Amino acid sequence: MERPGGRSCSGPGPTPTHAAPASVSLAQLLQLVQQGRELPGVEKRHIAATHGEPTASRLPPRPKPWEAAGSAEAPAPPP
Amino acid sequence: MSGARGGAVRTLRVPGRHGYAAEFSPYLPGRLACAAAQHYGIAGCGTLLILDQNESGLRLFRSFDWNDGLFDVTWSENNEHVLVTCSGDGSLQLWDTAKAAGPLQVYKEHTQEVYSVDWSQTRGEQLVVSGSWDQTVKLWDPTVGKSLCTFRGHESVIYSTIWSPHIPGCFASASGDQTLRIWDVKSTGVRIVVPAHQAEILSCDWCKYNENLLVTGAVDCSLRGWDLRNVRQPVFELLGHTYAVRRVKFSPSHASVLATCSYDFTVRFWNFSKPDPLLETVEHHTEFTCGLDLSLQSPTQVADCAWDETIKIYDPVCLTMPA
Asked: Which of B81, B187, B246, B253 is the most buried (most CB within 10 A)?
């Protein structure tokens, strides 16, 4: 299964105030999720778009290595 | 052994962040973007990391947080500052590395996690394709807030969406429905369906030197090559990984070489034109290895990232040796 534990579980409650361990193991996390418990140190953000314009580009695009190769013969896979 | 020692591995440790994808800048040699998530992507925020290489190793140039985990990243092909990420909350973000705060734009249409984003590689257009667990692919012009088109057909989650480097407007998708599909932006219906594996397909890529050739990597631990002119059987099969293949990339520099990373923690290099195709196995991670990229400017350089909170750049021995 690609996403163990799934992400449809409801979000955790208020961020805990105790210091979070640097790394919780995946097995420990899955256990917490299955028990419906709060995950330690979940960092909540409220980030939104700035709607700014991108910084102007000053570099020309570079050719890709396969474009520079020009008419190099394409390899055939083994029969 | 003639001259062929690979360079030292350069590592950046990012505590509390699990790497999902790594991409070298197409403009700046030695600049790498990494999409990462807190808590293995299960809960919490995400971070986009921009790394630069110098003589002593890897340096974090800048990082940007997002409200949910980031699962993929793609650089702009027309602006060295710009990149796009995609997130567990179903949105895409447009970032500018020259600005301290971001994102510039957020694109919210997918109704589930977006696992893949790719910026078109052909010169005539600037388009982004996204693949989601909501089973749809969406096409975007980053200067427009709404998607240009939605492609339906997959019957399960989509894990990978990749533009052809040769055929304008053509992209491939890989899915949990066990198919590889080929699409064209000029029509919303799928062009080719390949029942490529009897397992979920987590990754696909196009050969840079043969426009008809793609590869798929699947949960069955195998890789299969597909010639679009005859998709009834694979043109090669590569075995060796002992757990799911998480990502596969054809080399930009070597016509028959490809690289893979896996839940078996390894990165492997293959030459599909050799009778014994496995070139090298790199075992320097201690957790699922999810991100992988090969440098466009340096034919020997590779970047990867894993759930062990590290990002690595290195030159595998097999790429430093002559063919």
From this structure: B246
Predicted pLDDT at A14: 35
Report the CATH architecture of B71-288.
7 Propeller (2.130)
By the 8 A CB rule, do B47 and B17 touch?
Answer: yes
Measured in degrees and rounded to the nearest 5, phi and psi for residue B312 equal -130, 145
Report ipTM for this prediction: 0.89
Which of B44, B104, B256 shows the shortest C-beta gap to A52? B104
Those residues with Cβ within 8 angstroms of residue A2's Cβ, 6 or more apart along the chain or in another chain: B157, B159, B176, B200, B202
Give the span between the Cα atoms of B149 and B268, in whole angstroms.
36
Q: Which amino acid is it at B51?
A: L
What residues of chain A lie within 8 A of the CB of B202, using their CB?
A: 2
The count of residues in chain A is: 79
What pLDDT score does B39 carry?
86
Facing residue for A57 by CB, picked from B45, B81, B225: B81
The pLDDT tens digits for A15-32 are 333 333 446 788 888 888
Predicted confidence (pLDDT) at residue A12 exceeds the cutoff of 70? no
Laid out side by side, the sheet with B114-119 consists of: B114-119, B128-132, B137-140, B149-151
Domain positions in chain B are: 71-288
